[in-house]
């Protein structure tokens, strides 16, 4: 049985710097969606929620009111997507300020342990602060030790 954790972090606290020199840009659906979909399915091949997406899954999420391509970051190496960080802003909580979420983050297995995931997460957190948000959150599987370590190192708990 899966155990999913919901972690939070204040965006009022300093966000770490990154020294990663990978090119990070925003997702352009008309240009990147097919390549992104292939990478997402490679990264999350065995994940029950994020893996095995079809183009309709991606397009349905892009049609949601919360979708903003400016909050969807891709890392490129030799013009190839090697990682991504997709942010979501929740405006729909009653009696609560909007909150930013790291909706999904992924790094090509060939680029693991390079600091790319951290650089992408920091890019996403900086995006949320640029939107004047005060809190960030994310969901992570409790048994995903590498992701937990990265998120805790970024101030999530």
Share of helix among residues?
25-40%
Low-pLDDT runs of 5+ residues are none
Backbone shape = globular
Q: What's the CATH H-level homologous superfamily?
A: Gcn5-related N-acetyltransferase (GNAT)
CATH architecture: 3-Layer(aba) Sandwich
Strand order of the largest sheet: 1-6-5-4-3-2
In CATH terms, what is the fold-level topology? Answer: Aminopeptidase
CATH class: Alpha Beta
> Helix count, per DSSP?
4
- Supply Rg: 15 Å
What is the domain total for the residues? 1
SSE string: EEHHEEEHEH
Question: Would you spell out the secondary-structure blueprint of this structure?
Answer:
Layout: E1 4-10, E2 23-26, H1 29-43, H2 55-62, E3 72-77, E4 80-90, E5 99-107, H3 116-130, E6 135-141, H4 145-153
Parallel strand pairs: 5-6
Antiparallel strand pairs: 1-6, 2-3, 3-4, 4-5
Give a short synopsis of this structure.
The chain is α+β, with helices and mostly antiparallel strands and 157 residues long. The chain has helices at residues 29-43, 55-62, 116-130, 145-153, and strands at residues 4-10, 23-26, 72-77, 80-90, 99-107, 135-141.
